[in-house]
Structures are given as C-alpha cells and as structure tokens.
C-alpha cells in the first residue's frame, strides 16, 4: 500500500467526511537529531497540515492545504504537537490537539476555524481537565484512552472524563478502536453506548513497520476506510511516518476482517 502523502511525513491520521470530501488531520513528522527515548521526545512536531481528497475509490489527488496551525502561535504550548482530531458543529470546525505546555505536561487544546481545511485560531488556554498523559509515578506516564462530552460551544469538557480512543457508530453499535501499545495491534470492541461498556471484538490491523501505530476509521461514499501510518517511506526511521489508507471489509456477521500492514 503506497503512502497517501509523500511531500511531507505524516502520522496519526484522523479522517472525517466533511462537505463531500475526506479530510485528513495528521501529525506532521519532521527530521530531528533527538534520540529515541521513552518520553517520545523524538516526535518533535511543530505544526499541522490538513489534507483532503474528493474520492478514495478511485483515489483522487490528495491536496495539501498547507500549514493550518503552528506551535509558536499557541500561547500555552512549548513543543510537540501530537495526534490531532477534528469535529464540526454549527458551521464551525474544531481542531483538537495534544501538546506539551510550558511545564512540559501534555495537555489538550482546541483551535477554531470556519472551513475544514482551516486555518485554525487556537484558544489561549488548554481545555480544563484535559491531560493527554496520565502519570504512573516514578516519572512514568501512560497514554490513557479517554472520552468526555464537550460543552455546547465545543471548547471545554462537560462532566467527567471517561475512557475511549476512536469511536464510530455502525449498524446501531458503537465501535471503540484502539492501539494495544507495546503489542502494536489495532483492535476494537463494541457496545451500545458511546461511553461503554465495550466488549472486545477482534483485531483490525497487524503491527506496522515502526514502533507506533495509530488510526482512524471513517465511512465515505458507502465504504469504510482505515487510515493509519507506517515508516515505509522513511525506510524504517521511527519518527518519520506516512499516512496510508485501506478499505475495511466485514465478514457475514459484521466483524472486521483483520488486515495486514503493507
Ligand atoms: O505522534 C506522536 C505519538 O506517536 C502519537 O500521539 C501516538 O499515538 C504515536 O503515534
């Protein structure tokens, strides 16, 4: 499967169908001399680009809409713009992103735009109560998947934060999909409520080339698509990843047929 985007390195794709196009909101990987470490310092991203296409089947050209938000323009951010996501409500578009604050703590911020392709204007402070990493003690941190209902203005959390990662609804069931961390699978579970409980349903994708695996799932023109990344384009350089896409196929019982990374 060739990378979708080759002019820059991209990772952590969140894909959405907006206004009849598929928009991809990825991390923008860049060259760095920082050695691989358990803090993830080597993932030292400084801005976001947005990409879109009019068709995945057949694949039409993927347009790079350019830089839509920079770390230097976000007052509370020190570095590391990581895996973003987007949402729309009442004609506005919201870009949500984790980044380190001035104390080095990962928090989640939001930036607002009038078009899916941005540009996006950041809120001056991160979302209250939004920690992207959970401390485990002894300077260890875990990426904890969580979900929270947003306030009506889309800018803060409403109520308690609960568990989740990527969520979509298909045939009346919520599908909660996630990376299994050190075992490098993408897996999913299903349930009747967006906040669970969920029952394990199987694997989506086998491990990719590279340490990280990260995905999103979107329905577009009647088909379901898995967006993910690997390090094929950089020949295995772990912090230089590229977004790919595969059509998801379901078996007779509606379960995802596990895919191999290629
Ligand atoms: O891109 C930086 C981090 O690597 C992401 O937040 C993780 O999901 C992993 O892909």
UniProtKB/TrEMBL annotation:
One of its GO terms (molecular function) is hydrolase activity, hydrolyzing O-glycosyl compounds. Transmembrane segments: none annotated. Keywords: Carbohydrate metabolism, Glycosidase, Hydrolase. Gene3D superfamilies: Glycosyl hydrolase domain, family 43 (2.115.10.20). It comes from the Eukaryota. Signal peptide: none annotated. InterPro entries: Glyco_hydro_43, Glyco_hydro_beta-prop_sf, Glycosyl_Hydrlase_43_Enz. GO terms for biological process: carbohydrate metabolic process. It holds the Pfam family Glyco_hydro_43. Belongs to the glycosyl hydrolase 43 family. This is Uncharacterized protein. It comes from Parascedosporium putredinis.
């Amino acid at each position: 499967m060739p990378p979708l985007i080759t002019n820059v390195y991209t990772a952590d794709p969140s894909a959405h169908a907006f206004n009849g196009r598929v928009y991809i909101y990825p991390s923008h990987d860049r060259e760095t001399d920082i050695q691989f470490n358990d803090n993830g310092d080597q993932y030292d991203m400084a801005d976001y680009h947005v990409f879109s296409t009019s068709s995945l089947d057949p694949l039409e050209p993927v347009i790079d809409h350019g830089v839509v938000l920079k770390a230097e323009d976000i007052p509370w951010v020190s570095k590391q713009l990581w895996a973003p996501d987007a949402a729309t409500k009442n004609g506005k578009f919201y870009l949500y992103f984790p980044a380190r604050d001035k104390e080095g703590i990962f928090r989640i911020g939001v930036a607002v735009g009038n078009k899916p392709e941005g540009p996006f204007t950041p809120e001056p402070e991160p979302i209250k109560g939004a920690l992207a990493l959970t401390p485990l003690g002894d300077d260890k941190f875990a990426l904890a998947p969580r979900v929270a209902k947003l306030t009506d203005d889309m800018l803060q959390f409403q109520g308690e934060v609960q568990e989740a990662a990527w969520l979509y609804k298909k045939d009346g069931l919520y599908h909660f999909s996630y990376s299994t961390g050190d075992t490098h699978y993408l897996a999913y579970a299903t349930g009747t409520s967006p906040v669970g409980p969920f029952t394990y349903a199987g694997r989506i994708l086998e491990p990719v080339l590279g340490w990280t695996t990260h995905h999103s799932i979107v329905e577009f023109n009647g088909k379901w698509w898995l967006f993910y990344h690997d390090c094929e384009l950089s020949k295995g350089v772990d912090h230089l990843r590229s977004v790919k896409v595969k059509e998801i196929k379901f078996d007779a019982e509606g379960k995802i047929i596990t895919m191999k990374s290629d």
